[in-house]
Amino acid sequence: MSGSRITGTMFDQGSPLVNQADGQAGTGEILVVLYLRGGMDGLNFIPPIDGDNRGFYEGFRPNLKIPASGSNAALSLALPNSPNSSSEFGIHPRATALHEIYQNGNLAIVQAVGNAGSRSHFDAQAYMELGTPFVKTTKTGWLTRTLDTQPDLPPDVLMPVLAAGSSAPTSLFGEGSTLNMSNGSSIGFSNANWNYRDDIRKAVRDLYSDGFSFVKDAGLQALNAADIIETFASSSYTPANGVEYPNTGLARDMRTIASMIKLDLGLRVATVDYGGWDTHDTQDYAPNNGNYSNKIGTLSDALAAFYKDLDGSEANALSKRTTVLVMSEFGRRVRENADRGTDHGTGNVFLVMGGSVKGGVHGTFPGLRNDQLFSQTDLAPTTDYRTILSEVIIRRMANPNIGNIFPGFEEYAPLNLVEGIDLTPQYGPGQPAAPIVSEVLALGGDSLTVVWNQVDFAEGYRVEMRNDPEGDWEIVQILGRPTQTTYEATDLAQGGYYEFRVHAFNDAGNSEYSNTSAAYNRSALENWRYSHYGIIENADVAADDMVNNDANITNLLAFALNLDPLGSSFPKTDFETPGLPESFQKDNTGKYRFLKPAGRENIDYKVEMCTDLVHWFPLPIQSIGQVGIYEKMEASAPAGFHPCFFRLVVDRNDI
Q: Residues near 238 by Cβ (< 8 Å), separated by ≥ 6?
């Protein structure tokens, strides 16, 4: 698939899931998190324009200050008839588009936000995005835990999470259903003019259709989502309300999010990054002119285009159920430095935008007098950033599980930023999230090993097993250590079919069950022997030179029988010459040939192929002639699979 990393959900047009997605209207709340990486200077974004703080501000920033009057003046944040009006502060003059949204009551500005716990970019971002200040060992991000505890998230939603751009942020760490993309047309199979596209699409779907693994489920989900996006998003997207998105990277990412929201695939969380805010030098050449001011303009125009694209007068307008959070890891020091820049600080501005936002200026501004500053250098934080996030999660997402999302945070005090019901916050670790069984390993003998992920807040795990898809589950192991995430089931019947599931527990209760993952006990297949594998490349070089070379036959056979991934030895004399991994024919047809000895009906043969050395699947085999006492057999890869890997598998069926 070109231009995408899909860990979670693609399929053919005409698929029932495509038809299901077409025309369905979503109803869930949508949270968009825009992270300004680098530490955005909030004091010049929302500068004081009146009162004592204006005097201190001008003294601290003689070159970088935003004027309070004139053509480059900050735009007043006074709001007639609003309890959140502020005539003492303005917004940067390049943020005219955001100022219009503010005046309409749909932008909340929160002053002096902090508690990231560090002036290091990497540490502060990690603390904030994990949702655990001063702790970087948390296994999941705060958005992941929000989704894990979201009460109304359907289990089969096609695309719950979107990370616009090339990678997912730390806030989505541990979230397996995240879809990364920069634009809808980047998702899908290559649009190159070739004859194999449909064959590859079908072959990849067939590849993920067999078996029981978590990889299979994730692969099919990825195919399904990408097929929908390819079907609906590959055509030209037309924004609503006459909106024209600016030609900037941020605006393109916001446009992508808007288009995915309108596809009604169940999107609940989207993230986007906008970096470059580490303005240590030449922050601006003059008021309203320079790198920082240009970035403010880019930010303002992209956010305004996004909001207007989703806005409408109807009660169920998308803008009313979409909330945008704009944050940065820390602010800048109040004093400009000698290089016309600002250094790492502490308190900063947060923005909350949406049709259900209670606009205005919120929070407590601590003041800029020396004795009011944090460490006498920074704006002192007066609002914990988790307070803002918690209010949006509780009031807009209707998720009260604050103890799980922000462990250790028990100070929820809403600032009245958004509309919604204040559910009672659930503090302390609640039920842990459901584990994910990633694989069941058949390592030989009579055992299977189950592997799952470590779950935050779990005190242990219960492992259940059954050997009948319709049978009852039996607890086979209780593990009291949260870091122990494997279990080996032993003394299993040869050829037995076994299903496993896991749930986590703590004092608050049990998690939901994990996915069910199954495997056959390999002991029944212990006679299978895998050859070495070889790669087929695009080169017209035939290679039948080994057919009549007895020495090469013997050497290759010994090599094949000794490479046993199951770990058990096998006497070569039991097989005599069961079959030969012939040298690989390197041509554009992608064929694998081997020699089958005549009169050996007790030998079974398989040829398997893969493209990643992980997911092998069988190919049909046909006879193409005789070579002495051997029958020459051939297997062909589906058209378009180049390069790929083959291996020969042989088995005695009479023992």
A: none
